[in-house]
Design goal:
The chain is of the alpha/beta class. The protein contains 5 helices and 5 strands. The chain starts with a strand and ends with a helix.
């Protein structure tokens, strides 16, 4: 099974494709889609949508794992991330992808075993679990890989028998 983890954002959208096979987890691809600061929001969302559409066509995942929005003190940032999530969910639904959503706490718990783990701990576990030579960069890509790992560790429990 191949899962594309997506860390929503308007300026930077992180993605990470992880495959689960008989021998464990294998990183297939990861990186970021970036938009230009100062562009109108609608143009940035369209750019993310089209970039993600291309990624889904190229990577051909079996499903998508997206981070749920957590409430933030910065309403402006929360709104931008919500808009990005909307574009992501629409793109994935249009591509007939199975979509799973996870909170940051669920991701940390699945990857590190501790729901309040620090960002560096999560990154270190992603590196270890995927047998990467170094911490995945940028942070948004590492977060996306963690989302994919979380789904691969969790989806069997969510599938009805």
């Amino acid at each position: 099974m191949k899962v594309l983890g997506i860390d929503p954002g308007t300026a930077i959208l992180g993605y990470g494709l992880v495959e689960e096979n008989g021998s464990g987890l294998k990183p297939m691809d990861f990186g970021c889609l970036r938009t230009e600061k100062g562009r109108p929001p609608a143009e940035r969302l369209l750019q993310l949508f089209l970039g993600l559409k291309d990624l889904l066509g190229k990577l051909k995942p079996d499903g998508v794992a997206v981070e749920k929005l957590f409430f933030s003190n910065n309403v402006k940032t929360a709104m931008a991330v919500s808009e990005s999530r909307g574009a992501i969910l629409l793109c994935a639904a249009q591509a007939n992808m199975k979509i799973a959503e996870y909170s940051p706490l669920e991701v940390k718990l699945a990857v590190t075993g501790y729901g309040r783990a620090e960002k560096k701990q999560v990154q270190q576990m992603v590196k270890t679990l995927l047998k990467l030579p170094q911490l995945p960069q940028p942070d948004d890509a590492a977060d996306a890989l963690a989302l994919a790992i979380c789904h691969l560790h969790s989806y069997k429990m969510k599938v009805p028998a």
